[in-house]
Amino acid sequence: MQLSTFLLLAFYLFLLWPLARWHHSRNSLAPAVFAGLLLGVLLGGLMHLAEGWGVNTPWVLDWIGLIGNGYVNLLHLLVMPLVLISILAAVVKVSNTASLGKISGSVLVVLLGTTAIAAFIGVVIAHLFGLTAEGLVEGSREAARVDVLNERMGRVTDLSIPEILTSFISRNIFADLAGQRDTSVIAVVIFAVLMGLAALAVRRENPEQGAAIERFVTVAQAWIMKLVRLIMAFTPYGVMALVTALVAKSSWTDIFNLFNFVLASFVAIALMFVVHALLLMINGISPLHYFATVLPVLVFAFSSRSSAATIPLNVETQVDKLGNSPAIANFSASFGATIGQNGCAGIYPAMLAVMVAVPMGINVFDPVWLTSLIAVIVISSFGIAGVGGGATFAALVVLPTMGLPVQIAALLISVEPLIDMARTALNVNGAMTAGTLTQRWLGPSVEVAEAR
User: Fold this and answer.
1) Phi, psi at residue 170, to the nearest 5°?
2) What's this model's pTM, rounded to 2 decimal places?
3) How far apart are the C-alpha atoms of 236 and 36, rounded to whole Å?
4) CA dihedral sign of residues 283, 286, 291, 294
5) Separation of CA 94 from chain center
6) How far separated are the first and last CA of the chain, in Å rounded?
7) Which listed residue, of 201, 220, 246, 444, carries a Cα 20 to 30 Å from 134's Cα?
8) DSSP one-letter code for 385
């Protein structure tokens, strides 16, 4: 192996040192996260140049992946224990169980309502940019993707809405704690709520035992949150590694060929961020303060492309930075990772529907067709966790339901990672917006219930 390959890896590892110095010199995580993002972009570009110098960049990226993928794995490791203990603690500390229903209802209303808005924006932007499936070239990679989609669609179309909802209930909580199903997060949330309600019943019948359960849950929560903060300290280095790999593996030729679709997608996503800001402003919350607070979370979601892996950072930011109740923060972060994702389940399938509907002679602004599309998107966004796979599976549910072909999803695979980064950031921001609005609407009643 050439010396230049080892030197490139050594240069990458050397840059971790000034990043660590910068990180430890700041009280806030945000500056170090942005520094890691910038370094990742520069190093990813350097990787592209290094390919022309004969450097074995895949080998270097494998070692860089040890940092990035290792960090993401640690976050996935946290998700189930954090969701279980945090939801359990939220229920045990909220003695008024009626407030739990209000929290869940409020969060779901915001998530599903904003998904409907996202779908409408997706339709409008796709129409304004003149996006169409005509002229898209199907190469060998896309043809292979079509075969995969057809196989997966067979599994999706066999599921009814009641079956999807039934999958939210765990048959084996240990399997769901291991994340073996697409609906494992929701299943663990439901199990934690039931455990919390049982703890409240024990407290009513035997206050001494109830107090012992609450002390145990409080200690466990403190333990888990300490672990969360320990792993969060590695965020700048994880972001740097993830962004380096994403930039290095991006095909600029594919991005240029599908530039119109990429640009339209980013415009639609940006408009949904504006919608979130308007919702916050209407409810008396400063969008500038909010976005300045949550930017590190959005940067990580952008670089990791995983809403589930962002749950720990999401919850911590909502509680410590935004001042949301732990109950609200945990419900919104957990629900938002699997239900009503504005980017993956809202914008993406709506844009694909327009791209294939227009060549078929369908008037996408026909009130009946448009209303049907938005309704299907909202319903599928609630149940999409039952079939897994994010944006692609949302398309596999929405397009056949509207009588449209699914092959369009395969033809866009080359730019999927780039757009998915922004979609994931939007999904996570939708969850945090839902939590922040719920706190504004229900905060006093939740705080009174927790204080009882």
Assistant:
1) -75, 135
2) 0.81
3) 5
4) negative
5) 27
6) 67
7) 246
8) G
